[in-house]
Design goal:
Chain lengths: 484, 291, 289
């Protein structure tokens, strides 16, 4: 037995040494896994980046970035987490226009099973690269802790660059989004697209109820009170005031509305172990128990929506008119309750926000490519994944859709299959109002505190733990977070 | 020049030659990064940073979470390391005795070492999850459920997992140590009619000193490594009973705050340095005895 | 009487051994469950049963014996996931050079620390030990810079080279060498042997058990290494198996057990083999001592 083992081990050993030394060089080309494995593989541009070997000179170009080189060979490394056809297309077009510049697009191809590993890898690797003064020239920030990057001065202030670049006309873009993205007076990323948030409401029922309201400036409590009033006389199917919301997320919204009550960031104090928080939990639970809010509501009066494109807007708006069995109704987009009543405005979330490495050695070229990503030419190709930041590109999209006169349903099965929804200029005008009114950025990823609250409160809403226990846990974990 | 001095110089030269291969690689991959890390702790950024004195240390020390993490780590290490040393020494002794299937038993004890983190995490969840088997039994006994990883009991679970996983590591080391004690020492003692306890104290324990020093330090290092599994179970911000220095440092790294990270590490190293010096002092006594 | 004692002791140790082996037994037996059965038994991990909505409280179903034996998991891992075997191979190619390199380099250095006298011996040794205690994140950034300078990025050398020069082997072998009485070495010295000769023909044979233990522990440490390859090996083709099993999220739970069994196999074989080595070690020191 032992002898056999020894022989087996020795053979494997000898074989391994021989094979390892000869086999390492060609894994890339012979495609052992051919990219069809379930593991991630990092797509690489055809050329190895060499632009990073030179140390960056962040202070050298204070007064504007200067023109991108048209003769010198340069490589701009652009790192994203998810692969994106938009970026691939942009790379192709840009390189065709600027033969001396190579865009080295790096991304991680991952299936769902490996998503978390790859995300960990992406976050850690990018952080290490940036800390060691290398790092990609352009970075898609969606999955990264952009606050930390900004705090550590790793990203260039695009606001300054924009101010000094006569080619970049702010007015060509949704300036409310640009302004909303400012952090401490600077702007450290530009998104390729954005989503807006609001509530689709049953317009017929709301008008019929005759309850007065002002959706341009209401908070959650007012909304709940108003909606309850509206649904008072309705039948069972229409009793819900709000659909499509989970109690956990409802709670985080209420907490954010009264942030100062629960969190004192200055002193690192949290006050979740208080009756105001346990009351809040119970209050939310009552809303769900009394079927004022519920994820399973069939015909809620309102439901929260994320709107990704003009077509998406129409689909969200019109599909209620095609409900069968006499349940059809007309809908309208309303503003979501705001958390800060002093400064009302809708919320938006940016998508594919790109930051420029402060230490990049090819800043002018990287900025030029970023501008290209936001140009009308590129942005008009944006479909579905957010509204383009470029106004002209948006206008073109909107015009196209109005001229066509209708939007096809995107559902491959179900009652909406094959339906087409009518669209008019009036619809686009209504939508514009929301696009321009969006002022508050939602973080791409929920904040650590929101995450803790959402995870822990679930145990309360499912009836597993008491409000007090949950409050204690949240208090415990949030305090650690606040005091780091 | 006498022969003694010549001998010393020759030995010194030999030492340099023996050390050279290790020293070269060690300097590049460990010493330099280590020194750079310490340098970061007194600078403001990692690239072209300027000297900021002890600001980072002040920031770290004033962080309530750091203090919490430090005291948790101290508690965890202070309890689990002595416990694991005692257990592994005991098991090593027993496994060194005459047993049936001794080889298999020895192997069984070291097996937890090979279990991958993913499997450990799965087992951990199966046993200690809110819906876990342990809670199923507790419910069965009408004892009510406990969310183990989110309670003060979490540190006990951690200690258990740590001992389970690493006791084999130490047993190997102790066994190898026990087996390298020359048998004739015991034979001599037997002739002199020494009792078991006497033999243990004056031969076994003395001869195990270098191994013990090693095992203690390795156990401390291993105690830091429980972080990976804890992290996979409870995330960045676990219940504050099991929020360790490794959590603090990992979070600092993720928020790119290398300054606070290295300052915290430097403080930790200072504390361990005291311990290492003490251990080596103990060992020196053993050495002088050997020479 | 002695037989009774031996039996008793064996039984007691056997009971402990079972506890130690428990997770492995579970892993092994569950690796023969079909994915659907795994899902049925363990889908409640990390979930909250909605009692408030009237669902019945259920628990995770820890099960030793599969309802029916299935090789699904193995088939899935070995046939449908070509990356698995490839990563397995990568692990071998990373771990073996580290072991060979570190044992050789460390034995030399340990000899100097244990048996040669030179100025600053103790202090230098403390420095070696301290680097072992440093959390990975602290030296990550400098290490990254160095790997870049040496052109090691995205190559397995970025992991192998630091692996070879780790302080662990030096520390461990030094401790083993401290056991060897000076008398053995003095005898050779009088015979006119130089330090290299003493090292090679006297010290090395004596510390064989230590080297066997070192080999095993180095194998385990580096086979399970997660952080370094995560950062230094950009290319998924080059990543070792440890990354495959670094986390198991819901999606991969179905094959986790079989993957774990395959993952553990080389380490178990090594243990079985090295264990015989320990016994050999005893006999030898018995004869010499």
């Amino acid at each position: 037995m032992k002898k056999m083992l020894l022989i087996v081990l020795a053979t494997v050993f000898a074989w391994a040494i021989a094979a390892c030394s000869t086999g390492t060089g060609n894994h890339g080309e012979n495609g052992v896994a051919g990219g069809n494995g379930n593991m991630s593989n990092i797509g690489k541009g055809e050329e190895q980046s060499n632009s990073n070997d030179k140390p960056g000179s962040p202070s050298g170009q204070q007064a504007g970035l200067g023109r991108p080189s048209t003769t010198e060979k340069k490589t701009v490394v652009f790192s994203t987490f998810f692969p994106s056809n938009y970026f691939k297309e942009a790379k192709k077009l840009y390189e065709a226009k600027h033969p001396n510049i190579t865009i080295d697009l790096q991304y991680i191809d991952s299936d769902n099973a490996q998503l978390e590993e790859n995300l960990e890898k992406f976050v850690k690797t990018t952080g290490t690269e940036m800390l060691s003064g290398k790092g990609p020239d352009l970075i898609e920030m969606d999955q990264l802790p952009s606050d930390s990057y900004v705090k550590k001065k790793m990203l260039a202030n695009l606001g300054e660059i924009i101010d000094r670049d006569p080619d970049f006309k702010k007015d060509n873009y949704f300036t409310n989004i640009l302004n909303g993205m400012q952090v401490n007076g600077g702007m450290y990323g530009l998104p390729v697209g954005f989503f807006i948030y609001g509530m689709i409401g049953n317009e017929d029922a709301i008008t019929k109820s005759g309850v007065p309201f002002d959706d341009s400036n209401w908070n959650w409590a007012q909304f709940i009170a108003t909606a309850k009033e509206m649904t008072k006389s309705m039948d069972k199917d229409h009793q819900y005031a709000l659909g499509g919301s989970l109690p956990e997320y409802m709670t985080t919204q209420f907490v954010n509305e009264r942030f100062a009550t629960f969190i004192n960031q200055e002193q690192g104090k949290a006050s979740f172990e208080s009756s105001s928080f346990t009351d809040l939990l119970k209050q939310v639970k009552v809303l769900f128990d009394e079927k004022v809010v519920g994820p399973e509501a069939r015909f809620p009066l309102f439901r929260t929506v994320q709107i990704n494109s003009p077509g998406d807007y129409i689909r969200e708006l019109r599909q209620s008119e095609f409900l069968s069995g006499g349940n059809a109704y007309g809908s309208k987009l309303y503003s979501s309750p705001s958390t800060d009543q002093q400064h009302p405005g809708g919320s938006f979330r940016t998508y594919q926000t790109i930051g420029l490495n402060e230490r990049s050695a090819v800043k002018p070229e990287a900025w030029d490519f970023l501008k290209f990503l936001l140009s009308e030419e590129m942005q008009a190709k944006q479909s579905g994944a957010g509204f383009p930041l470029n106004k002209a590109a948006y206008a073109k999209q909107a015009k196209g859709i109005v001229e066509k006169g209708s939007v096809e349903s995107d559902q491959p099965i179900g009652p909406m299959k094959g339906k087409s929804f009518e669209i008019t200029q009036q619809d686009i005008d209504d939508l514009d109002h929301f696009l321009i009114g969006a002022a508050y950025p939602l973080q791409f990823k929920p904040s650590q505190i929101d995450e803790i609250i959402a995870v822990e409160t679930k145990a309360f809403f499912t009836g597993q733990k008491s409000a007090k226990d949950v409050a204690k846990l949240i208090q415990n974990r949030v305090t650690t977070y606040l005091n780091e | 020049m006498n022969s003694f001095a010549r001998h010393l110089r020759k030995e010194w030269l030999a030492a340099v030659l023996f050390l050279a291969p290790s020293m070269i690689g060690f300097s590049i991959f460990y010493l330099f990064p280590f020194a750079t890390g310490l340098l970061y702790s007194v600078q403001d950024t990692t690239i072209d940073g300027s000297f900021v004195g002890l600001d980072n240390y002040q920031a770290v020390l004033s962080s309530g979470s750091f203090r919490k993490a430090a005291s948790n780590t101290l508690l965890f290490t202070g309890v689990s390391v002595p416990l694991i040393i005692m257990l592994s020494l005991l098991f090593a002794h027993l496994l060194n005795k005459k047993l049936f299937i001794r080889g298999w038993l020895q192997t069984a004890f070291v097996m937890p070492l090979v279990v991958p983190a993913a499997s450990i995490v799965m087992m951990w969840q199966i046993l200690f999850d809110w819906n876990g088997t342990l809670n199923a039994w507790m419910q069965h006994l009408q004892a009510g459920r406990i969310d183990w990883m989110k309670s003060d009991g979490s540190i006990l679970v951690l200690i258990m997992i740590y001992i389970w996983k690493n006791v084999g590591y130490n047993i190997i080391l102790f066994l190898a140590g026990l087996q390298s004690i020359p048998k004739d020492y015991y034979e001599t003692a037997d002739i002199e009619g020494a009792g078991e306890l006497h033999k243990w104290r004056h031969i076994t324990w003395v001869y195990l000193t270098p191994t013990t020093v090693f095992v203690v330090l390795m156990s401390i290092i291993q105690s830091f490594k429980v972080f990976r599994e804890t992290y996979l179970i409870a995330g960045d911000y676990p219940h504050d009973r099991i929020y360790m220095l490794q959590h603090y440092m990992n979070n600092m790294f993720l928020s790119l705050d290398v300054q606070k990270l290295t300052a915290a590490a430097a403080l930790m190293v200072c504390a361990i340095l005291l311990l290492v010096s003490a251990m080596l002092m103990l060992e020196r006594r053993f050495r002088s005895y050997m020479e | 009487m002695a037989l009774l004692r031996k039996t008793m002791l064996t039984v007691i140790m056997g009971a402990f051994a079972l506890i130690m082996l428990f997770p492995m037994i579970i892993t092994f037996s569950n690796s023969f469950m079909a994915e659907s059965e795994i899902d049925y038994n363990y889908h409640l991990i990390g979930k909250m049963v909605d009692v408030a909505a009237g669902e019945k409280n259920e628990f995770i179903n820890l099960k030793l014996i599969p309802d029916w034996v299935s090789l699904d998991q193995y088939a899935e891992v070995l046939i449908h996931k070509p990356m698995f075997l490839h990563m397995f191979w990568n692990s071998v190619c990373i771990v073996l050079p580290i072991i060979i390199g570190q044992v050789a380099v460390a034995a030399l250095a340990a000899f100097a620390f244990a048996k040669l006298k030179f100025w600053g011996r103790e202090k230098l040794f403390i420095v070696y030990v301290m680097t072992m205690l440093m959390p990975f994140q602290v030296t990550l950034v400098p290490n990254y810079i160095i790997a870049g300078r040496l052109g090691l990025m995205n190559s397995s050398s970025a992991i192998i080279l630091p692996g070879i020069f780790g302080a662990f082997g030096v520390f461990m072998l030094r401790q083993f060498m401290l056991h060897i009485p000076y008398a053995y070495l003095e005898a050779a010295k009088i015979d006119g042997a130089g330090p290299l000769r003493i090292f090679y023909s006297i010290m090395l044979p004596l510390i064989k058990p230590g080297m066997a233990a070192l080999t095993v522990l180095l194998f385990v440490d580096h086979w399970n290494m997660v952080e370094q390859p995560l950062i230094f090996l950009e290319d998924a083709f080059k990543q070792p198996l440890s990354l495959y099993l670094s986390r198991i999220n819901e999606g991969a739970r179905g094959v986790a057990f079989a993957a774990s069994v395959l993952y553990m196999t080389p380490m178990i074989l090594l243990f079985l083999y090295a264990e015989s080595y320990f016994i050999e070690g005893i006999q030898m020191s018995g004869i010499k001592g």
